[in-house]
Design brief:
Elements: E1 15-18, H1 21-25, E2 33-38, H2 55-64, H3 68-85, E3 86-96, H4 101-112, E4 117-124, E5 139-146, E6 157-158, H5 162-168, E7 171-172, E8 178-183, E9 185-186, E10 197-198, E11 204-205, E12 212-213, H6 217-225, E13 229-231, E14 237-242, E15 249-250, E16 254-255, H7 277-287, E17 293-296, H8 303-310, E18 314-319, H9 322-336, H10 342-346, E19 352-354, H11 360-365, H12 368-378, E20 382-383, E21 395-397, E22 418-422, H13 430-443, E23 447-452, H14 457-470, E24 473-478, H15 479-483, H16 488-491
Parallel strand pairs: 1-18, 1-19, 2-3, 2-17, 4-16, 17-18, 22-23, 23-24
Antiparallel strand pairs: 3-5, 4-5, 6-15, 7-8, 8-14, 9-12, 10-11, 13-14, 20-21, 21-22
Length: 492
């Protein structure tokens, strides 16, 4: 993993901002970012849920973006701000699908200028896709724009196909290295290039009629001594090109070599629109240099931030979802071994998360599914990916003490877990506790955690009665205790 250099003196980097990106972008100075990648929620009817299958979030999205026009009106002021904060040498990538891509292209032409459009990249995100009455839609589109006329560009290559190498690299030398050959003659003379050339077996050859040697006699001798000349049966010299010395095929606009994040993928987090790390590695490698600043204003689960960190870039992330911000923070800690620490960040290391709703008043206002995920993650648990039909379990904690011994299977400890139930209520009552008791009895769990803003006296009495009767422990946790980090003893 490459290490980023010193942070920018102009803008704070290694920061995740929680909130509306339009508000945050307006705080950034002009021309401060080298590369922008965004993957905003698509204006589609694919039933995307912004996080882990929550139907209320889906409905909110559908209400807000009821039409393509509404979607474009939502995105336009944000793209205007993104263009403003981009450096003259910067690049911009907009990731979308077919539902609104043509309208997005027109909008971006108006903002950046038609001449600043560089490529439409097609990413094949899935294999064959079956649609009943039309062609299967299995690709996404990335629009690539440059801010000025001298943008950062690092040429990338992809490996040759097996078919291409079999057809073109048909020769093998004595060391087993594959190579192809090319003509060593040229159309126009340039210096002494009409000489006779003597082959190793003593034959004399000249260029074809009307042509000349492409190299001087001295250069030809130098290449022969280096073993770079192959002689045909006619004695005509040909220049060798070794396969292992070729960079590959210059990267084109059709990308079918990067697989989507699917069920079972090692990097899968459960975020419905999660993009593969390899995709962001490619974009960041091509359009930025070490220690450049990468911005993702819809950063979701943070793939762009992880890629930027691994490649030694500075980065800024923005997302409106508190849950997403906490998930990407955990990902940066786990995957990049980057510490979330204010003091460390001030010394040019680590990272910070800004503007999370850390007050009770703010937490009361966020959507219930966001509140559930916030509470579960704050406890160090794993939120349920499905919010409908969760069987009364909002999350699970896998205690460290349950880790398997070396002789046991790697995943044996996963059978030991504690359920988490979350209620965004002023006071959880006895009926809420009764329901959770049923969950613990059904799952045969010895301990469980219940989070609310407060608990009624009846609820607390029922928790004690349940322990006396069954020996099972319900730990009541208030939001205030979590915010004040007064939960360590209760989690033990």
């Amino acid at each position: 993993m490459a290490k980023p250099g010193k942070p920018s003196a102009v803008v704070d980097t290694r920061v995740i901002f929680c909130g509306d990106n339009l508000d945050q972008l307006r705080k950034l100075p002009d021309g401060c970012v080298d590369l922008i990648y965004i993957d905003p929620p698509f204006n589609s009817n694919r039933n995307y849920e912004v996080f882990w299958g929550e139907t209320k979030e889906k409905r909110a999205f559908e209400d807000r973006h009821a039409s393509t026009q509404a979607y474009i009106e939502f995105m336009r002021p944000r793209c205007v701000e993104l263009q403003r904060v981009l450096k003259p040498t910067g690049s911009f990538y907009y990731h979308c699908d077919w539902h609104a891509s043509h309208y997005v292209k027109v909008m971006l032409d108006q903002i950046f200028g038609e001449n600043q459009f560089q490529n439409e990249i097609v990413w094949k995100r899935s294999s064959a896709h079956s649609d009943s009455h039309r062609y299967g839609a299995n690709h996404d589109t990335l629009f690539f724009y440059a801010k000025g006329n001298n943008w950062t560009w690092n040429k990338l290559f992809t490996p040759y196909s097996e078919e291409y190498t079999d057809q073109n690299y048909r020769y093998v030398d004595e060391r087993g290295r594959r190579f192809r050959v090319s003509d060593m003659t040229a159309n126009k003379p340039g210096g002494d290039v009409s000489y006779e050339w003597r082959t190793p077996d003593g034959r004399t050859v000249r260029p074809y009629k009307g042509r000349y040697w492409a190299y001087s006699r001295e250069k030809m001798k130098e290449m022969e001594d280096a073993g770079l000349i192959y002689y045909r049966t006619t004695g005509m010299p040909m220049l060798k090109h070794y396969l292992n010395e070729m960079p590959g095929v210059p990267l084109q606009t059709f990308w079918d070599d990067i697989k989507a994040v699917i069920s079972g993928s090692e990097e899968r987090l459960g975020y419905p629109t999660q993009k593969p790390l390899a995709l962001l590695d490619r974009i960041i490698s091509a359009s930025s240099n070490p220690n450049d600043i990468v911005l993702d204003a819809f950063c979701g689960c943070g793939t762009a931030l992880v890629a930027a960190q691994k490649l030694g870039r500075q980065w800024i992330g923005i997302d409106i979802s508190p849950t997403a911000c906490r998930v990407m923070a955990k990902r940066l800690r786990d995957v990049c071994d980057l510490r979330e620490d204010e003091n460390l960040w001030r010394r040019g290391h680590g990272f910070v998360v800004r503007d999370l709703p850390w007050t009770e008043a703010q937490l009361r206002k966020i959507p219930p599914f966001e509140f559930e995920n916030w509470a579960v993650i704050a406890l160090g648990g794993l939120p349920n990916k499905a919010k409908v039909g969760d069987m009364g379990i909002d999350g699970r904690i896998f205690p460290v003490s349950a880790a398997p011994k070396k002789e046991k299977g790697v995943m044996d400890f996963m059978n030991i877990w504690y359920p988490i139930q979350v209620k965004q209520k002023d006071k959880a009552g006895r009926p809420d506790i009764d329901s959770f008791e049923a969950v613990m009895t059904r799952e045969d769990c010895t301990k469980g955690f219940f989070v609310s803003f407060d608990f009624s006296s009846d609820a607390l009495s029922e928790i004690q009665a349940f322990f006396t009767k069954s020996g099972k422990i319900i730990i009541p946790l208030t939001v205030r205790e979590i915010l004040d980090e007064q939960i360590a003893m209760k989690l033990a």
